[in-house]
Design brief:
Helix 6 packs parallel to helix 17. The chain contains 17 helices and eleven strands. It has three domains: 67 residues; 218 residues, Spore Coat Polysaccharide Biosynthesis Protein SpsA, Chain A (Alpha-Beta Complex), CATH 3.90.550; 116 residues, no CATH class. 43% of the residues lie in helices and 10% in strands. The strands form three sheets. It has a six-stranded mixed beta sheet, sandwiched between helices. Strands 4-9-8 form a three-stranded mixed beta sheet. The chain has a two-stranded antiparallel ribbon with strand order 10-11. It binds manganese (II) ion. The site of manganese (II) ion has 6 residues, from loops.
Length: 454
Amino acid sequence: MVAPDFSKSQTSSSPMAKPTLRHKASACLADGFLFLGGALVALLLVWTLWSFITPSINPSDFDSINAQLNPPSDVSSSQSCHRGPSLAYDPPDVTFYDDPKLSYSIQKPMKNWDEKRRQWLNRHPSFASGAGERVLLLTASQPAPCRNPIGDHLLLRFFKNKVDYCRIHGYDIFYNNALLQPEMFAYWAKLPVVRAAMIAHPEAEWIWWVDSDAMFTDMEFKLPLERYKNHNLIVHGWAHLIYDRKSWTGLNAGVFLIRNCQWSMDFMDVWASMGPQTPNYEKWGQILKSTIPDKLFPESDDQTGLVYLLYKEKEKWADKIYLEAEYYFEGYWEEIVTTFDNITGKYTEMEKGAGELRRRHAEKVSEQYGAFREKYLKDAGNGKGSWRRPFITHFTGCQPCSGDHNQMYSGGSCWDGMRKALNFADNQVLRKYGFVHPDALDPSVSEVPYDYPA
Ligand SMILES: [Mn+2]
């Protein structure tokens, strides 16, 4: 399940930075020309009007305008090149948003989405830079308060964890707690949210669904997007379990990355057509139960539906679906939480011999330190049995909000596992703020002493 060549693909993602920078620079140049062009027109206009009022212009006026247009130092001009997206700019040109027939609902098919998105991006050029790697993280929970007395507190901490991860890596995040399509309840509720988010965020190339009961336990790790460049849907999964065993656990549908494109719109239409909002819901339950032998319950569910589509309509969809098995794209909490102590020990040991990893730094620049760490993780492995921090820990079967849990384990092991994982992740964040939880289960903190050898 775990391939050894992961570090290779990690380094293969670093060349991506170059084209991005080049792209940024050229977009910046184009912006600069536009700005100068506009400024020139404005100057001419001012000069024309001015010449009606006064016979001549004081040359010193030009000097001061010029000075504003062409700041003398290189520093300020290079800073102006890193402005990023223009959040206040939406031109009056017609886009797909102005089409009265446009619907955000998953029940209305979307056509020509790629063209519509491209047109929007053309009209918002400040979003062009980095557009191919832009990620929106989506997560959600139920509209009502949790039944589990500590459920809302746990959900808050799970959400804080996702916000932390997104802030560190510059991703946007949307938390939904409304049922957008009331008939699509429970695990089906995410599909209408993903669909609406695609339309709400034409600037995002990827929508990343992460269940409310999943959390980041490696705050440094970044999605190897370069690896997914020819695919549109990425899930944690294993081909042999899907195609040979027809198992409903051949993949996990609680975390997935889906490209914001027409293919995804079409795929979600087919996927959602097995859901409770359709008259065929019962029929789909029977079909899935009879096709997928280890399916436990008779109702149609999204995960078995996805396994079914891969198995039955392989030619149609499988070449665009990437089954990621090389790292914990999401991992089963029970096999993970027992490894945290060992991992913490290994990382502490690693840092004893690596001053660059102990150096204090601003949170904003922490990605660089994640890249530094890679060379120390060459022998760590990935996924099950490795001592690399697991990327995402998924509390499948624990249900923090309802308090219900799989009878295989006690509720106590669920909640303790969550607290342990949350402290494990929070320690990676809090450290940038100078503090740490010394105890795996205790919320209290102590200050991190200065420890950076020359
Ligand atoms: Mn889940």
